[in-house]
Structure formats: structure tokens, C-alpha cells
Amino acid sequence: MLNTANSYLENARKAPKSNQDNQTLLLSLHQAIAKVKSSHASFIICYNDAFNSLGIADTAFKDARERQLRYKMLKRKITNGITVIIILYK
User: Fold this and answer.
1) C-alpha to C-alpha distance for 33 and 36, rounded to whole angstroms
2) Which helix (H) or strand (E) holds 78?
3) How many other CB atoms sit within 10 Å of the CB of residue 6?
4) Is pTM, for the whole model, over 0.70?
5) Would you kindly state where each structural domain of the chain is located, as residue ranges?
6) Is the separation of the CB atoms in 29 and 6 below 8 Å?
7) How far apart are CA 69 and CA 71, in angstroms?
8) Please, what is the angle between helix 2-14 and helix 20-89, to 10°?
9) Which keywords appear in this protein's UniProt record, sorted alphabetically (predicted)?
């Protein structure tokens, strides 16, 4: 769509200059295209930031889950070890 608008703008610029209204419309069209390009660039930056943030959050979640599993396994080992010690002392 942006390419089509640029194509129309170039064709209009090449056409014979007829009046001031056309020149004003060409300027407005040029400004609108520039605004869309700028908005698109901003969108891409925001999208990339959001995508990278989700990646970081996913990594942090996986790390937290791994730590929780290791903690549970260590807790079981300690609990089992204490049980064995109590049995040996009886």
C-alpha cells in the first residue's frame, strides 16, 4: 500500500503542473507518506522491544521453574537424610 502511494506521488510529480491546488495536494500526500513511514518504523521498534521482552520473561520463568525443581529435590534429599539419621539413632 505504501509502495502504491509512493507510485501515485511520483506519477503526480511527473505530470504537468496545472495549478496550486495540485501542488498543495502533492505536498499533503508526501507528508502523509512520510508520516506512515515514520509510524511504521516506530511500530517495528516497539514490536521488537515487546518480542525481546517476552523472550527475557520466558527465560526468567524457565530459570525460576528449574530452581524450584532443584529446591524440591534438595528438600527431599535432606528430609530423607534426616529420616535415615533418626532411624540409625533409635
Assistant:
1) 5
2) helix 20-89
3) 15
4) no
5) 2-89
6) no
7) 5
8) 160
9) Plasmid
* Cβ-Cβ contacts under 8 Å for 23 (sequence gap 6 or more): 17
Grid coordinates representing 10? 511520483
Q: What's the rounded Cα separation, in Å, for the pair 86 and 73?
A: 20
Cell 525443581 belongs to residue: 69
- pLDDT tens, position by position, 20-55: 667 777 788 888 888 888 988 899 999 999 999 999
The continuous run of DSSP H or E covering 8 comes out as helix 2-14
Phi, psi of 16 (to 5 degrees): -60, 140
Rounded to whole angstroms, the Cα distance separating 51 from 39 reads 18
Q: Grid coordinates 505536498 are at which residue?
A: 27
CA distances (Å), 40 to each of 44, 77, 78, in order?
A: 6, 55, 57
